[in-house]
Amino acid sequence: MSKKIFAIISVLTAAIAFHSCTLPSSALIKGKPKVSLPIKIGTKDFDKVVMDALEKAIPDESTTIMDHITYLSEDGKNIQAYVIHFPILKDQNIRLGGLSDTIRDINNMKNNNPNFNVDDYLDSIPPYVFSGFASDNYHPKMDDDPIDMSKLNRYLGGFHFFHVVAKMYVSGPTILNDLGAEMKMWALYTHINGSDIDEDLLEGNNTNHFINSKPLSLEDYIDSEGNYIGKGLPNGNWPDGGLPDGGTLMESLPKLLDDEPADLHFHYQIQLPFQELKITREMLDNADDLDKPVNVEILLLLPLLFTSGTPNGADVLLFDGKKDLEDEEEKDIFGRTSPSDFIKSLSMSISLSEDLFTFDNLLTNGKIYLDDRDVNTTTNKKVDNPDKIMEWPLTKKSMNLSFSEENMAYINNPNNIPYSPEIRIHVPPGEKMLLLRTFKSIDITFEVEIEYWLEDFNFGSGSED
């Protein structure tokens, strides 16, 4: 997401040294611009940041990310939330072998012979021997790009989601319930500590009789603009976040988000055991059900409700450095393009709105900092270098902050120009954050006095007298 930098030059003078009638090829321009970064966390900006991160985290084109426009928190506040639809398995036909043919043959005899006694016939035939079946698949496929939830960590590093709800919906021929069909599903990913994880997502759930004849119909929960509208109760007490009825709760899936899986794949199996099956009249009555394909879908409710982790707390990315200046060519946050552009004085003012955070201790243990550290391209983590971090404690909602001589020396070092650091707010551990839909903004303004040196500064041609 790009943001433009608006500079208002309040004082601009040019010191041009003439020698005889020779026009200069360079000029020193002094100015004191007020540079205001349009940094906001609110209905549009932060919503787009999270949505962009989710779209990058889930590259599978069949996955749908919907804005849950009616989600309510416990205290009735309308907060930002998403519902993510994963079509794990779509329209797979289960090979029931000769069972389908046997049931259809019995129905044909019943329909073509008025004297045919169904019950006597069913009592006379031996049980059907079902040889079993297993379907083993992955989503996304192992050769495709994985789901990478660590991308959210860049914008909300150290925060953990809470009140996340995941439900699995399975539809298909209900005879699979009689056959003892069982669904198994695991999450395969690499933990942030480097260990490989194989997490059972349905452990402890009774997945017998989990097949519903009616597929999940998302159209019943989506408005004309593609937003999820839920099925909320008048008092906002939604134990399942307003997700559709039915389905199986997956309590393990929300918990693994704290592990920030960067290479997540769902591994799933549908197993039908070898068995002798007694054909019943109910199976005959539901013969049309036999041809229904199996669909497996997961809905993940992701409300933007967070707690800052322990023991280190968490960071909120306000400004993404060079990425937020991608339309500004090689300019830094002060508009400089050349190592000769020298900042004589610099100050920063910030204003935090009343609605920004629900943190109790933000103004006692929180801080704001500018982070110019490089990223290791192999590990994708910041290179530890304290000299590239400038930080200030947050003591009140509106503050004017000054830069030390060491800070100024770093900013003016030609090796550090263009200077476009990330700007973050650090939150103490154990704090909660609720991202409401009506957030007011954060304002950050730099007051800068810069000397710009312009090369090849030609006014025209001239000659000496």
Throw out a few tags for this protein.
465 residues; mainly beta; 2 domains; five-stranded antiparallel β-sheet; 8 helices; 23 strands; elongated; disordered N terminus
Share of β-strand residues: 25-35%
What is the mean predicted local confidence, pLDDT?
78
Rg over CA atoms: 31 Å
The DSSP helix count reads 8
Kindly report how far apart the N and C termini lie.
Answer: 56 Å
- What would you call the shape? elongated
Structure class? mainly beta
Largest sheet: 5 strands, antiparallel
Number of domains: 2
Number of strands: 23
**Which percent range fits the helix content?**
10-25%
Which segments are poorly predicted (pLDDT under 50) over 5 or more consecutive residues? 1-30, 37-44, 457-465
Question: Would you write up a description of this structure?
Answer:
- The chain is mainly beta and 465 residues long.
- It has eight helices and 23 strands.
- It has two domains: 6-39 and 327-454, no CATH class; 61-308, no CATH class.
- The protein has helices spanning 45-57, 98-112, 118-124, 175-178, 252-256, 281-285, 362-365, 405-412, and strands at 6-15, 27-37, 64-67, 81-92, 128-130, 133-139, 159-161, 165-171, 182-190, 196-200, 248-249, 265-272, 275-277, 294-303, 305-308, 314-320, 342-352, 367-371, 389-393, 398-402, 422-427, 432-434, 442-454.
- The strands form six sheets. The protein has a five-stranded antiparallel sheet, with helices on one face.
- The longest helix is centred in the N-terminal third of the chain and has 15 residues, at 98-112.
- The relative contact order is 0.21.
- The model is unreliable at 1-30, 37-44 and 457-465 (pLDDT under 50).
